[in-house]
Amino acid sequence: MNLSARYRRRERIVERSIAGESFLIPVCGTPVEMENIFVLNELGAFIWRRLDGGSTLSGIIDAIQEQYEVTRAEAESDLGGLIERMLAAGLIEETA
Question: Which residue range(s) make up the domain with 66?
Fold first, then answer.
């Protein structure tokens, strides 16, 4: 994982919180895309909100460590897994 990489949320995806859970919902696209809803736990929502195109993955790892008191290796593993799933689902894109 390139820790200097930066990712941003795709504009066609919105986050909604319902009963303490966060959902990523496509607001436009094909009917198949519109049926896909991505559910985030607390850490996932924390990460999602930092995918603004300006924060590096290293900076997000630092924020995870500070907020959740986990080791750097744990934070990096959690972030890397979520980034992979979000890329595969078309929810985020890497910025230049």
Answer: 6-91
